[in-house]
Write a structure and sequence with these properties.
Strand content: under 5%
Shape: elongated
Number of helices: 7
Radius of gyration: 21 Å
Number of strands: 0
Oligomer: single chain
Distance between the termini: 47 Å
Order of helices and strands: HHHHHHH
Largest sheet: none
Length: about 180
């Protein structure tokens, strides 16, 4: 079952977090296995399934990155082999990765901080650029959503690249 349908919420990248939490707690009470201990084994199994669905749905929809991946996956946009990104971004990332390789051989706090600042600036630019798309997605007519989803997919993939670079930077910072 679709998590948004389960919670009776529209598919959105920016859900009403209070409504999401209210629905989660309501279903947590409704589907708690202890309240169905005297039910038939089949009903108990169904309640356990719904309780698990509730937990997974809340965990996914309450986390912005998991929610974004969930929506993109539900539209078949994160399939293997469909991970191409714009060449200009890949060049930027390649330059950052080269600087990371240099850091691996010659640790330097100043270089690490410069790379970190470049990554942060790139991430801020990406976030600012995608925010209007995320905000307006829910109101888009159905025929305009595929284009918005492609933009969000590109953002998501770029963000994952930057996350890997940040993880590498964190390793270098830990060594310092």
């Amino acid at each position: 079952m679709n998590y948004f349908t389960f919670y009776q919420l529209p598919e959105t990248f920016l859900p009403d977090t209070a409504a999401l939490k209210r629905q989660y707690y309501a279903f947590s009470r409704e589907y708690h296995p202890d309240f169905h201990a005297t039910s038939s084994p089949g009903q108990q199994q169904e309640i356990l399934h719904l309780a698990t669905l509730n937990t997974n749905a809340y965990r996914t929809l309450s986390d912005p990155d998991l929610r974004m991946a969930y929506i993109l996956n539900s539209h078949g946009l994160l399939d293997e082999g469909k991970q191409e990104l714009p060449a200009d971004f890949l060049m930027e990332v390649m330059e950052l990765n080269e600087q990371l390789m240099e850091l691996e051989f010659e640790p330097d706090t100043e270089t690490r901080q410069r790379v970190e600042a470049e990554v942060n600036a790139l991430a801020e630019t990406l976030d600012a650029g995608i925010q209007p798309v995320l905000t307006g997605y829910e109101m888009l007519p159905a025929d305009a959503r595929p284009q918005a989803l492609q933009q969000i997919r590109t953002y998501y993939l770029k963000k994952r690249y930057l996350l890997r670079i940040r993880e590498s930077l964190a390793k270098f910072a830990a060594r310092s």
